[in-house]
């Protein structure tokens, strides 16, 4: 497990530190859960990663923007830079993403994930399918 986590962090790039999974934030008496929270040591800011099992929807940008505001208000220190958001979706329409983020002043990126292409062929039969992973993610959401 440590090897996989290390490999994942290296793929993100140098300087990422894992903070938590399903990190709870309470805003106005309501609980919200961040899929993944990292801290970037060089940029000195939190990085919120939201995982979506389907296509990008404009409301995902609003949700992530809300999470960034909450992290900046409740978690970050005065000396930290504003938090960054990364939304990972199964697919994205670039024009829809552009319109959704056009007037947003928060640093948010949207990318597609590709689980199957990243797996060596000898491991594909030993690991759950994309459909199984998506069902598990939907249960956690």
Descriptive overview:
By secondary structure, the chain is of the alpha/beta class. The protein is 39% helix and 29% strand. It has a five-stranded mixed beta sheet with strand order 1-2-3-4-5. It is globular, with a radius of gyration of 16 Å. The model has no long low-confidence stretch (mean pLDDT 83).
> What is the CATH third-level topology name?
Trna Endonuclease, Chain: A, domain 1
CATH class group: Alpha Beta
Residues in helix, %: 25-40%
How far apart, in Å, are the first and last alpha carbons? 23 Å
Average pLDDT figure: 83
Shape: globular
Determine the strand fraction and express it as a percent band: 25-35%
- Biggest sheet, strands in spatial order? 1-2-3-4-5
Q: What is the correct CATH architecture?
A: 3-Layer(aba) Sandwich
Strand runs, count: 5
Number of domains: 1
Order of secondary-structure elements: HEEEHEHEHHH
| Count, helices | 6
Rg, nearest Å: 16 Å
Feature tags:
5 strands; Trna Endonuclease, Chain: A, domain 1; 29% strand; 39% helix; 141 residues; alpha/beta; five-stranded mixed sheet
Task: Reconstruct the topology from this structure.
Layout: H1 2-12, E1 16-27, E2 30-40, E3 45-51, H2 58-74, E4 84-89, H3 94-101, E5 108-112, H4 115-118, H5 121-124, H6 130-140
Parallel strand pairs: 3-4, 4-5
Antiparallel strand pairs: 1-2, 2-3
């Amino acid at each position: 497990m440590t090897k996989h986590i290390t490999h994942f962090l290296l793929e993100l790039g140098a300087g990422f530190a894992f903070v938590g999974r399903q990190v709870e934030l309470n805003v106005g008496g309501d609980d919200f859960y961040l899929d993944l929270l990292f801290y970037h040591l060089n940029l000195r800011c939190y990085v919120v990663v939201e995982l979506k099992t389907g296509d990008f929807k404009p409301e995902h940008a609003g949700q992530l923007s809300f999470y960034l505001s909450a992290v900046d208000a409740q978690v970050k220190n005065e000396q930290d830079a504003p938090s960054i958001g990364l939304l990972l979706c199964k697919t994205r329409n670039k024009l829809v993403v552009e319109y959704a983020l056009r007037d947003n002043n928060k640093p948010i990126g949207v990318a597609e994930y590709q689980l199957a292409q990243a797996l060596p062929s000898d491991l594909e039969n030993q690991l759950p399918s994309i459909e199984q992973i998506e069902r598990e993610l939907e249960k956690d959401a």
